[in-house]
Amino acid sequence: MYGCRRCALAAAFQIMGMAASVGAWADGASVQTVPTVPVQVVQYEALLEGASAFDGLRVTIQGEAIGQAMERGTMAWVNVADKSGAIGVWMSAEEARSISMLGSYSCRGDELRITGTFHRACAEHGGDMDIHAEAVAIVRAGERVVHPFSVARQVTAAFLSLAAAGGLLLLRSRDGKRRALESKYAKSGKGSGHGR
Amino acid sequence: MRNHPRKEDYLIILSYAGRVAIGLGIVCVAPMLVAIAEGEWSVLVDFIICAGACLLSGALLSMCMPDDAHPGWLHGMVATAVSWLLAMVLAAIPYALSGHYGSYLDCMFDAMSGFTTTGLTLVLDLDHLSMALNTWRHVITFVGGQGVVVLALSFLIDGSAGSYELYVGEGKDERLFPSVLHTAKAIWKISAAYFVVGVVALWVTGIAIGLPVKAAFYHGMWIYMAAWSTGGFAPMSQNFLYYHSAAYEMVSVVFFVAGSLNFALHHAVLTGSRREMIKNIETISFFASFVILFSIVAAGLTRGGVYPDLVAMMRKGFFQVISGQTTTGFMTISARQFALEWGDLALCGMCVAMMIGGSAGSTAGGIKGLRVGALLLAVRNDGRRLLLPPSAVFKKKMHMIEDRYLGDEQVRAYALITVLYVGMWVFATLAGVAAGYPALDAAFEAASVTGNVGLSIGVTAPAMPIFLKIVYILVIWAGRLEFMAILALGGFIVSAVRRR
């Protein structure tokens, strides 16, 4: 189910690819264009399954910025999700502010390529699994997502609303009759037959 | 009710279930308001469909009540079990319409997980869920925490016939007032008071950790509802790891620990009996077992060198253990990190913590501190009996709001529920192993499911086998209702089938 062997192989492959790309990135640069040097991007799942092997190494991930950027002084947290999961990226507040869209219901967030140091359990951040970014690049701008407005659903909603209103009115009338019957029983001292 | 159910029996049960469906339809107003505020018009239509289905089916079923009905104990019990199933089917409608689930079974899994305050989820692409649907997930958790039937009792059922049976059937047997109706309303008042304080506290903390003001409000509201009801749902796929904040974690801990305490204890403390906090058997049992289990988990994490320093180990270990034992299910690590990094000793400690759970008469699940405490007292009493002369007399009592006699019959009842919980955990573990998962992973997930916790080691996922999803739905349902209503439903079905 977990494919541990497969993941271990994938992790080993990712490490080799990553080693080939080390040095292709400039330290400390802020938002920059996508480099021309081929970069081996590591999936979140591979990082998670091979966390011990990747711990403290420089990695490159690519994914959508999601939710909100949370500024903490001169730095910020941005959570980045690829198809296999999401991880927190610790970057400068300036870099975080350059992200124009973060993924939510109404929009697809900017797709980022991030190179930085991976921590299996970051000592600086209370044991969180995270990446301290050294370079952040926007490889694709985010966009608004239009959600279709189904006519069939509107008709269904209208029909159900009317039917429910009718049903509730009928129930109200029936409950009224029941209460009247119960009070009649109570006055005559027979009781309605109800238990507790 | 007679030995063989008659038409009248079915009608009474369906009628009560109908009231619960109406209650659920009214609850749809909350996500509708959010959909309007956020301009999520297509989602608004989905919730109108859900509300219409709830109110229509509820009205039709409620009309089934015969004029000369004689509701009894078994009606209340069976109605509770049936109401929860009906609520699950209806609450799944907006999930199905959202397109974020692989099947209607997955939707029902999430609905039952929400109502039972479990917090395990099969949702796809949670990070792009609408605000309204996220509100729905958390509202049904909040409602489920106080009790779906408590909701109906409070507002829709007149509090007379069968109401006590409905209340007990939902796993609550503590009355704050002689009247069940007043008790149900008091539970909602206590929750509403904490709601205001909780949302404000998390909103302010959210802003302080860098969330925009509006997002901080929504996150605060959702997290509060999940925390107070010990639910464990979170609006983002990373669960609590999304926030990367010790402050946010600590504020939430306050509210989920409060949610895991007995409503009767809250009522006692709020009405001036503050010493109850240190005298109550449940708080003593909870804190003693927490200290022991956290020590075991900490030993496991330290031995495995899982975290780089004491602070990280304490933060991760403390949060996961307190989240597990209160049956909340918030996580500040990824599910797979449990399996890959935590080690067997820490996982065993977590399993026991999840099985023990919070307090009886609270929003928490598990065996409950009351039963564990009472059984340990019974063991002590039996030990004394062996050591003292046969003629010696000693007090057999425990303190919960008041001093109570701990007789053999009471101990037997506590032991029976405990045995049923352990039996169900074994069953869920075997189901997990049969589905091909490693034994420890299956046992961990089974403990989470049985105790309505929500911590996951990675077993619960959209790709897991269908039969395991069904087993987990049944287990979290039975665990939340503490078996009595389920046994009553089972007996009812057997007697109905026998008739034919």
Description of the molecule:
- The complex is a heterodimer of chains A (196) and B (500).
- Chain A is of the alpha+beta class and 196 residues long.
- Helices cover 36% and strands 28% of the residues of chain A.
- In chain A, the strands form two sheets. Chain A has a five-stranded mixed beta barrel. Chain A has a two-stranded antiparallel sheet with strand order 4-7.
- In chain B, a hairpin with a 1-residue loop joins β1 and β2.
- Chain B is mainly alpha-helical and 500 residues long.
- Chain B has a two-stranded antiparallel ribbon with strand order 1-2.
- The model of chain B has no long low-confidence stretch (mean pLDDT 91).
- At the A-B interface, β1, β2, β3 and α5 of A face α3, α8, α15 and α16 of B.
Let me know the number of strands of chain B: 2
Helix content of chain B: 55-70%
Count of helices of chain A? 5
The strand order across the widest sheet of chain A is 1-2-3-6-5
Distance between the termini of chain A: 53 Å
- Low-confidence stretches of chain A are 1-38, 191-196
Kindly report the average pLDDT value of chain B. 91
In CATH, what is the homologous superfamily of the largest domain in chain A? Nucleic acid-binding proteins
Shape, principal axes of CA atoms of chain A: elongated
Q: Largest sheet of chain A at a glance?
A: 5 strands, mixed, barrel
Helix/strand/pairing class of chain A, anyone? Answer: alpha+beta
Please count the helical segments of chain B.
21
Q: Would you report the number of β strands of chain A? A: 7
Using the 3D structure, state the CATH architecture of the largest domain in chain A.
Answer: Beta Barrel
